[in-house]
Amino acid sequence: MTEVPCAKPQLGRPGPSHRLVKLLGYWCLAALTVSAARIWAPQSAELLQSLWWAVGGLLIGAALLDFLTGRRILGLEGQRKLPANLALGVRNCVHLKLRNHGQRALKLSVCDNVPQQLDSNGLPRQALLEPDQEVAIEYSLVPHRRGSAEFGRIEVLADSPWGLWQTRLWLGREQSVKVYPNFLGISSLQALSTEQTLRHLGLHQQQRRGEGMDFRQLREYRLGDSQRQVDWRASSRLHKLISREYQDERDQEIIYMLDCGRRMRAKDGELSHFDHALNGLLLSAYVAIKQGDAVGLQAFAAAQDSSGGQLPPVKGESAINLLLNNVYDLHSGTGSADYSGAAQQLLGAHKRRALVILITNLRDEDSSELLTAVRLLTRNHLVMVASLRETAVDRMAQKPIGDFSEAVEGAAARDFLRRRARLLQQLQACNVLVVDSRPELLHQALVEAYWRLKRSGKI
């Protein structure tokens, strides 16, 4: 949690409270009673009018006295404590702390200047602060857009002693916090081994014949080890059988080509396809980094207000943090994806052979440009195309037909899926690996495809 020191309060002008407005309203309504009395009871009209003026004088005098005694608010301080960062769609708690160093009790209505990209719950709140008393207020936030979230100062309405006036104050300081993608709890996987991580994701390692090519360590011979694993020199020195243990090749490069075009703005549920793509990218990149591989990123067709999106392959413990800070403020644009231009840009920047993973939302009208782009990439790289299925179209194709309009919709959906399947087959014919997944399962599909390639020795 990030706690910002107190700042000097900013004091606004006092304004009439709801109580004063109501009292003035009742006093004005009483004038109608006096006017009616002149018609129906002339003998008591003068008495009622005198009483009405007396009440009005008392009300104005009380309001003036309350204004003079309550216009100055001294000794009120406020602080906001925020999480170090926020995750998209995850509920977080914010803590406000108010302290009264003044000489009189304060009745407060507390609110906070929450950024528009965050949904808050639990405000405004009422609080009564006696002199030298402190109160803690907690409310919840749920981010619905990634990027930098800018908080204004804490906003407080302080009642005058009789509650006829309210003074607006701004406490604390402005703060900024980053909203990151919610990539299915990478922090919960950090203490797990690769095998445990795969099991946590619901994936099962497939046994393979043979071993990796990179030497890992020497260990005692185990039943089932092949003879070529035995290190005879170490065995003769230690007078017992010693085996060499190998691991999958490390120091490979994986480059994600992320489509940020308008199709990625489609939604299946609460998150857009683009946010699901980021979740899958980050989680599969984390698994690759744990395996010792380097991970890079090239985003294309991003929104103009986006930052980042370009990262050369990096490896090591800090790589996932570099990737996170590179994509947290990356947003999908409204233009079309230029696959050929993105492929040429990648070929110009990366000469070494790598696994290139293109994450996009395929349509059959992309066939010509997409096939041209992947043919360029396969000259130097191993290429994988990961496409997000639109579950709304799947549901439409499977929906029972009840009338003519539903029959037309169902036929259009099945035709769309047929042409899309033909494009995927054309990609496979170009020696391109294809991952076709529902958006919410993309993270699992990408990790499974990466691990299959790793175990096969292709990367």
Automatic annotation (TrEMBL):
Residues 218-386 form the DUF58 domain. This is DUF58 domain-containing protein. InterPro entries: DUF58. The keyword Transmembrane helix applies. Keywords: Membrane, Transmembrane, Transmembrane helix. The chain crosses the membrane at residues 20-41, 47-68. It comes from Microbulbifer variabilis. The lineage of its organism: Bacteria, Pseudomonadati, Pseudomonadota, Gammaproteobacteria, Cellvibrionales. Pfam families: DUF58. The keyword Nucleus does not apply.
